[in-house]
Structures
1.
Amino acid sequence: MAEGVSTDPLLSKVILGHLECSICCTRYTQPKNLDCSHSYCLKCLQELKKTQNPDTNKLKCPLCQKETILPLDGVTGLQSNYLLVALVEEVNKQEQLPQGEESKVMCQACDEENAAISRCLNCEHYLCLECQKAHQRLAAIKNHEIKTLAELQEVDETQTESKMNISRCDIHPMQELCLYCMTCEQLACKLCAVMRHKQPMHNLADLITAFDICQIKVSKDISKLHKSKVKMAGQLDALRKRLGCLFHETKNDISQHAEQKINKIRQEEVQLTQNAELVYKIKDKKMAELQFAEQTMKTIRTQGKMTDVNRLEILKIRQELLHKYEQDVNYEDHEELTYDLSFIALCKVENKVELGTLLHKEKWELMSKAIVDAACLSSYSNGDIVAVLGSQINILRQFGEDFNTISQLKCEDISKPITIAVNNEDHLIVLDDPNVKTLNKEFQLLHQFTPGKESGSKPTCLAVDENNLIAVGYKDKGEVSLHNPDGSLIRTLSAPGIDQYMIMSNQSIIIYAYNNRLDCIDLNGKKIIDYQTSYPILAVCCDKAGDIYLLVNYRIIQHLSAMGTLVEWINFGNDIHNGPIAFTQHGKLAVKQSGNIVSVFHRV
């Protein structure tokens, strides 16, 4: 009998549905039968046995969980599935047909190698035209259900389309996702449940139960959300973004602080090592001198009368013992000789290398004060603070817990700075009335442009975003012009009430309006935030996450979320602060006090 082989689409479906092992999801290799009639590759069953109890002679089927008692020679002794072996061999043979040669379904009811045109669903045989007629003439089988090959393919395509709507496991494509692991928060198929989510370590539930549990948890979380003191509903994306920014900032702080500690420890190591070497040489030299004294007296006593030969021998001994020591390596002669002359050790100091603790709530504390006057503040990527007053530029850098001035210079390229910002290339952008100037780290002028020149508007504020776009505000026109880094105009936006403060964050422009109002618009001019406060706004800045900080009432900062809702009031005590304010790239908050003082605050 000539075995029939399907055309290519049908062949693919047969292979996918019947000739692939459910464990390895590839074509069967040496398929073995379990007592439950499920078949798997020999190698797959051997690997499966290793994951189950190796001390028993039982093997649990990963699909139906029924146990099979293994023969004496283990998995190898299981009955082979010869039907699957034959099918795999036939499919492999048909796949080796020359390209372009059409494979055919052959009749399985006769030996004449006729092409099949139908299939008897009762006999499970493909039939040629003559065998189909004979099938329909015989009384015993004339009622068998016969389908043409076209009808079979149509039914199979319908079933395939139905199966496509079922979610399949990525690891075991033949398996449907029908379970949920509450421990891992992950969908799973039955094989995954056996191999990756074993109970009791994992809590598995069917989809209906898992959904019910999920719905109860969602209801409780929504209730907590509505009862929260801070209005968090509707801005969780922004809060998660803020948490991510602060997490990366915290990681960097940990690394930098650890590096500082390590450097300090290395310096201490060098110093201690040098001190130990000096103490060692001093003590060893003293003992060498004592040893020389003993040998010399012994020689003098032995020889009696000293000759030139004796004298030369003694000096050779002295040279051998003492020549390697420096002249300044001396042991105080008046010190009493004790056994401690041979002692040196390290006294360890514990708990002096702690890096710190993690903060879970935001609280600010004064970190440092620097004597420097400033009309404008900003920060470079390394955390340095740049303070500008007229043509005077001061750079403040953190050393331990203090910020100290490391650079003071006069910049001939600026004379009337109104406000400053630093872009992501560490270029200083200065609104030097009426021009916008870009300076490099050496404060050399790179280029400049004059905003509002065509309209006759006078710029009053400036801001730069993470893409180096420059926004310039005009109080007299109530407008903001958006520019490329080279100064070319992108568009003009309406900004009624704009005054002297403006910042850019998260693809938006935050504007302080003169009537105690804070507006936020996107880069197309659409209003995002409209926040009204009872106090005059003296200065405004943003942290990396986009949260907004308003200096009001000379000693209070209002902390707003990136969505414009009030988070908290921060009281800086009795010190008078009149702005400007700026966040450093390392999360410190610099605030200009009255007089020539810049205070720096950090989270504690």
2.
Amino acid sequence: MTIPDKPEMNTAERRRAVAQLLVVRASGHASDRQRRYPRWELNNAALQELLEAGVGGVILLGGSATDLQQRCRSLRHWAGHSDLLLCADVEEGVGQRFEGASWLVPPMALGRLQTKEPDKAVDLAERYGRITGEQAKRCGLNWVLGPVCDVNSNPANPVINVRAWGQNAHGVADLAEAFQRGLRSSGVLGCAKHFPGHGDTAQDSHLELPVICHSRERLKQLELIPFQRLIAAEVASVMTAHLLVPSLDDQQPATLSKPVLTDLLRQDLGFQGLVVTDALVMEAISRHVGPGEAAVQAFEAGSDLILMPADAHAAIDAICAALDSGRIPESRLHESMQRRQEALKSCSKLEPGTPGHAIETEADHALAMELVERSLETQGPSLSPTAQQAGMNLIRVDGVLPCPVLRADSAAVTAPESLGYETRICHDKGLSPWADHGDPNEPLDLVALGDGVVFLQLFLRGNPFRGAQERSEPWAEAIEQLLRHERLAGLIVYGCPYRWDALRSLLPASTPAGYSPGQMPEAQECLLTKMMGTTPAQTGIRDFTD
């Protein structure tokens, strides 16, 4: 990008320009007391101060979709203008983060469908992108941090997993491009992530720095293919990955690497849009570099926007100091400002939708349910009621309670209870299903599970901040144990297709089993209704078609 010569900025102008390149984290809730993650989400006083000082972007999480509408109005008011970048990680629809909007199946559900119906999968991916963009815009957002362009070539990936569109590079490129096409038609910005590709990692960059030991040729043949397709489709932004790729740079992670961001992404691949870091508070970066220096190194490497610096003031101070000293030429600042302005010009200038109007339309809901229904898999007979001895509905959630996927009235709880099962929920900080005797062939504590049969429901998908915890749990051995004792009533896996494929192969044809990529309540309802061979009314499940 060629930027015409500009007069040198004074100190105040430069500081405000640098502030424009920061994207800070905030809750979608209006009140400070409602923040779910106060460690990362600024309180209102700090947020207002930064916006008034020129900070140009906010990433939001939490609250309802209607809360978000008002929140976006407030943020624009505090900033004194409408040229804010307001974004969210809504890879699975706006309802993934904000209740009242459409929560869609994970992208990998369409990758699985693509192997059977490629044209239909591409069509659904475009519609997926369109309703995500339209609902984001109704809420007041103008930037969606998706699509994920990682090729999940490693089934043990703890952090990408079902967030990817699949494990085939060209298939991922087809679906990600279709999503971006739909997103762009809605008038919001998209973001291809995580460059140069986070799909073949066994570590979570929220916790540590993964190393990718592939050659440049391998990267070109697999990881880079979806990014090249999205660049050709003129995606507005590319997000960096916190990865060390020695074949590209054996010293710095991609987020802080000029060879990766400037030489490869800008020069070799020809990307002209915005480069945004992944969150700098993630431990792959913050464990090794201080907040100010991390922001400087990212900007020096070629990033235009600094996402979630650990300390916004330190980031602004450090970048200004680097510009003042000549470490970074002021022309870099002008380039990033120009790219930011070009991006804002390309998206709709619409305010949030009318308060009180639904964010999710009937057509949106119909698509959400079509995606769920097309992604379900079942085998074996219908799930039966328990006999005289009460059965156990054993649920494992890969996280902590409370969580959005599992409420007291969720179908995973109520549907088995309608058949006579007693529910027990295990989660990261709650009851454990494991025996303490250490026998690998008898891992479950069968005494604690009672004398009856066990209906096993596993919410397993790979989630940030859990590392390898989910992979260390011996569910294959547990299923074999229940089969030996003739106590397995049925199995459901919600989320990870790799775990489903491995576990289903252990089951005899007489065992009811089902799979849903989506974990949301609507997916539970659909799958359990199908497995029970009944209608929602017969089982007490809420009728999601109403």
3.
Amino acid sequence: MNSANANPKAAAREWIGLAVIALPCLLYSMDLTVLNLAVPHLSAALRPTSAQMLWIVDIYGFMLAGSLITMGTLGDRIGRRKLLLIGAACFGIASVLAAFSTSAEMLIATRALLGVAGATLAPSTLSLIRNMFLDAEERTVAIGIWVASFAVGGAIGPLIGGLLLEHYWWGSVFLVGVPVMALLLVLGPWLLPEYRDEKAGRLDLLSAALSLVAVLAVIYGLKRIAEAGVGALPVGAMAAGVAIGFAFIRRQGKLADPLIDLRLFRAPAFSAALVSNTMGFFVGFAAFLLIAQYLQLVLGLSPLKAGLWSVSSSLAFIVGSNLVPRIVRRVRPGFVVTGGLVLAAAGFGLLARLDRENGLPMLIAGYVTLSLGLSFVFTLAVDMLVGTAPPERAGAASAISETSSELGGALGIAVLGSVIVGVYRHELAQSPLAGVPPAAAEAARSSLGAAADVAAGLAGPAGDRLMEASREAFAQAFETTASISAAVALAAALLAAIMLRGVGTPPAPASAQAEATLLG
């Protein structure tokens, strides 16, 4: 068999199908951020309790992360296109229900449904790319576009949400997804191939339940630590999640047709890509949140201006993810991943040396640099994860990739978020706050946002003094956290260099194997 037959090139239909696949990915990342803008509006309309508000904000991410493994494996069994279209229909229906929710309880339930439906999108789209693009170089290009679509969604989500909230009610932010999903339902059956593993057994419901509870418990504990610090409840939740996760892994080793094939982890490229992806999201997620706060609360930019400056990061992701396929033609993937992490460390190094007086240019330079470096890491890590797995396990491999992203991001927010809070409180406690009542100073130590609220209520120069001290404390904490992130990125680069030595670009599947399993 010649190379042309072994690695058939994609036709125009596959590339147009890739554009269709990018639509739900764009929406996937939009829905993670757009609700934050609507919180004040829905609070006034639905009047949720503080506990209900936490669940409204968090339940989407919780259910999404917990359902990824099950949905990825389910797509391998019933058909990846079928699962994608079912998820798209459910996502559209849940979006309408969320938009017209009449109570906090209804909104929590619909957000949970959105999370489960959203969990079908990323694994299904990524595993379809595995089967649509059999040539290794074309698959890397396609995955680069797939990664870029998430960056675009993250960039335009706050902008579209802000525009909608200026003219319509809070529920309008949910309706953005309805026409996108309708378009996917119309074009998907025509442009996307069907694929499923004909030899797969029945879905093990106990394994699905164990994976859901394990991931939910760990993510819940990490988020609560990030928000309120270490406590018995979040630590207990994480411990329970780890124990249930261990039981889940033991069960997979005993099943003839497991939810996750543990043999995937024996491949050096798969394990190395998984570690690199997790470490990249560890430093990346926290940075994106903290930079948004720095732009608004330290540099004093409006939310719209901060959002516009944040677009630079998305542009860097788009450029980087589309440069990777050209780079790996000449450079081994291990060197590219390592170089990307070193570049990300350099970006964090710039953030650690910010000058508050003229800090915007350096902040944007650091933001763009770290985003460019992480785009290399994410694109190649995902490519190796799905490229190393056999075609019949592409859905499960895609789900593992997305779960590692969610866990890495949550862990980064919990750890680095705790660092910045601790340093902020220490620095503010050392600042002289003449004229500021002790109760006001204590309230300001919880966060920079709280300090801004407290300062606004103080008369005379005391409010200005408190605000200036709080900004300085946050700036110091930000620089410390950036330095730690740079060190973590360098350590991850060293680990990637060791784990990926000798690993080449994963081979594309032979056409005979692909034709035996493609159904449409």
